[in-house]
Design goal:
Mean pLDDT: 91
Low-confidence stretches: none
Distance between the termini: 37 Å
Helix content: 25-40%
Structural class: alpha/beta
Shape: globular
Radius of gyration: 26 Å
Number of strands: 19
Largest sheet: 7 strands, mixed
Length: 474
């Protein structure tokens, strides 16, 4: 038996990726044979020996479910990292993420059909799955494993020298993103400056929303703290370590977390934590740190002041965090992980395999009734799926492919199947009466394309979506 972790992408520094690599290392220590599959599933994946019946897939879900997953004829465990509420993606430029989050929440409702069991990393996330139809005895809660060895690396000397100057340093780490609520962190910092005018705030993380970042800069200026709110951006790991080492306190006002690894990192660096009690944050803290129930700046600012001026209070908070950190160490968690894995296998032994049989005959596409006599068709999306659709339609007397369209390749004069790949504007200017088949596998982009076609005047009845297995998607 091999345990195969499937993740959309594997990126150093990414929270989900770090969890995948930490779990892989733990399983290897327990003599399990493992593999990590970090790419989109496709038609060939169905026949890949990695996904044979004797193996177990652990599928990490943080946004949308790969639609090919349902065809894998193997045992499957869902590792649910949670999905941000789409309503938190209201900033300009986040339309695609909002649609992906909405699709992801719809996907979650279907996961009990294809997964045998689920792991979540907080009670909050477990409750989300139960609300989406999961049976309580099939969902298990485990804290995220963290690779602590990398935290022993040497911190950046320049950062240490620059900011170890006796001033109070307040830290938050996480991408610059609306759900992280850096604007509330800045407001709390501005209120705290009434206690300590020399304090400084570090907001360390990649700018994931430029519009939101610019709004934060305007807010800091309006509150007259722009000189002391520092955005280092996405930093090297040695710099990341250094910011933790120069910090005096960690302040988190995030409104959506599936676990929140920086809280545990703060415990490691012996930073007292002040955090808003939302979503998974109370679960991760497990009774340590200081939780606040409101985002009112004065409330958290007063807590920060106590921690910076009351030695006994600070000592008590740090002692609680040290005890919680011991519970979250890999050695302490390995037995729990192995126990959950055994429980998942026991569930699997009692249930048949959960999968859909892949369509074997791809010679004819199930086209809508009424098509015939060379119905004009535009194929939108000329990746692997689009090419396969064209091969299925090229000798079909019911249709005539009149155009190939791809936003990325259109307008570059590329030829495929004897036709020029055109841009959407060029195709729409002359093919308003055609039927459009969308052949893109990224589901969020499919929604964008469908809305774009609809807005351009293509009736909804003339927009058709097919998955890679040649099945129509409603």
């Amino acid at each position: 038996m091999k345990i195969v972790q499937v993740v959309a992408s594997l990126t150093e520094g990414d929270g989900v990726s770090n969890a995948v690599m930490a779990l892989d290392a733990m399983l290897k220590r327990q003599d399990y044979e493992t593999a990590i599959y970090n790419q989109r599933l496709n038609l060939q994946s169905v026949q890949n020996p990695l996904f044979s019946e004797e193996n177990i897939v652990i599928y990490h879900l943080a946004l949308t479910v790969d639609p090919m997953l349902r065809y894998l004829k193997c045992r499957k465990i869902l590792a649910f990292h949670n999905i941000t509420d789409p309503r938190l993606f209201r900033e300009r430029g986040l339309d695609e993420l909002r649609m992906q989050a909405a699709l992801g929440l719809c996907d979650v409702e279907e996961t009990p059909q294809y997964f045998d069991a689920a792991i979540t990393f907080s009670e909050y996330s477990r409750d989300v799955l139960l609300q989406k139809g999961w049976a309580a005895d099939c969902v298990f809660v485990l804290p995220i494993l963290i690779r602590w060895k990398q935290f022993r690396h040497v911190p950046d000397a320049d950062v240490l020298e620059r900011y170890r100057d006796g001033r109070t340093n307040i830290l938050f780490t996480g991408r610059i993103f609306p759900s992280k609520r850096q604007e509330d962190v800045i407001r709390v910092f501005a209120a705290y400056r009434l206690y300590d005018a020399t304090a400084r705030l570090f907001l360390v993380g990649q700018v994931a929303s430029e519009h939101y970042y610019q709004r934060l800069l305007r807010l800091a200026k309006a509150l007259h703290v722009e000189q002391d709110v520092i955005f280092p951006g996405h930093v090297r790991f040695s710099e990341y370590l250094a910011y933790y080492q120069v910090a005096d306190v960690f302040l988190c006002m995030s409104v959506h977390e599936g676990f929140c690894i920086p809280l545990v990192e703060s415990m490691y660096f012996q930073l007292p934590i002040v955090a808003l009690a939302r979503t998974a944050v109370p679960d991760t803290l497990g009774g340590c740190g200081v939780l606040v129930d409101t985002a009112e700046p004065e409330v958290a600012a007063a807590v920060l002041h106590r921690l910076m001026t009351n030695a006994e209070e600070r000592k008590r908070v740090l002692a609680g965090e040290a005890a919680r950190l011991q519970e979250l160490q890999a050695d302490a968690l390995e037995e729990r992980y192995l126990d959950v894995l055994q429980k998942c296998r026991a569930i699997m032994e009692q249930e048949p395999l959960k999968y859909e049989e892949a369509q074997q005959d791809f010679s004819e596409l199930p086209l809508p009734k009424g098509w015939g006599g060379g119905t004009p068709v535009v194929i939108y999306g000329m990746g692997a799926a689009g090419n396969r659709l064209f091969d299925m339609l090229r000798n079909d007397a019911r249709v005539k492919v009149v155009a190939l369209c791809d936003q990325g390749m259109g307008g570059k004069g590329q030829q495929m199947h004897g036709l020029t790949i055109e841009s959407p504007c060029d195709v729409l200017s002359r093919c308003l009466e055609a039927e459009y088949i969308i052949s893109i596998q990224n589901r969020a982009i499919v929604v964008q394309v469908a809305l774009m076609l609809h807005d351009a005047g293509i009736p909804s009845a003339h927009i058709h979506i097919y998955d890679e297995m040649g099945e129509k998607v409603v």
